[in-house]
Amino acid sequence: MAKGFNPLIRKAQPAGKKVIIIGATSGIGKGLALLYLEQGCSVGITGRRTEELEAVKNQYPDTTFYKTMDVMKDNCVQFFEELINDMGGMDLIVYCAGIGAQNPNLNDDIEINTIFTNVTGFARILIYSYNYFKVRNKGHIVTISSLAGIRPLRQSPAYSATKRYQIHYTSCLAQKANNEKLPLKFTTIVPGFI
Fold first, then answer.
1. In this predicted model, what pLDDT tens digit does every residue of 4-61 receive, in sequence order?
2. By the 8 A CB rule, do 72 and 51 touch?
3. Which of 175, 74, 66 has its CA nearest to residue 120?
4. Strands annotated E in the chain
5. Do β-strands 42-47 and 92-95 pair in parallel, antiparallel, or remain unpaired?
6. CB within 8 Å of 179: residues ≥ 6 apart
7. pTM of the prediction?
8. 94 has which bridge partners?
9. DSSP code for 58
10. pLDDT in tens, 85-112
11. Crossing angle, helix 108-115 and helix 157-179, to 10 degrees?
């Protein structure tokens, strides 16, 4: 197989699409950003670590746009909107930001931070995205959740519960779009341990 060849992405023919990935400084988010860039998309990336965002921008300077942002902060939607404007629009949003930790002692800081990132930040971004795509009558929302949202983890209650929230919330938005007869697409991915 040729370097970088992915038959699923090739079949989707994403070249020319405007893709934004929330949480692209490492892991799945960064991998997706590089894959979409390799496929000829314009890609907007966000995350808390500016140096990681700049590293991707340096690899693909003409087609990468970025905003340093934290989905836990109230101003995240403002930065998200600025990124969309910088790119001249958005066709696809991938929400990949997330935190989680084993928390056997049920430390409240760990639980609350997980909820703010995986629920509050997530909801802010998806609400804005849904309304943005509704006005344009097209768009695709992708949620990277987790198998933990289907199979509860006793050692990570907030992580498991918030990943379930993401799965359910995305499904509810899909039903809402269907009811409103909007041609929007929704995808939820539930990877195992990575």
1. 555 554 455 667 899 999 999 998 999 999 999 999 999 999 999 999 999 999 999 9
2. no
3. 74
4. 18-22, 42-47, 64-68, 92-95, 139-144, 184-189
5. unpaired
6. none
7. 0.88
8. 21, 142
9. H
10. 999 999 999 999 877 778 778 778 888 8
11. 20
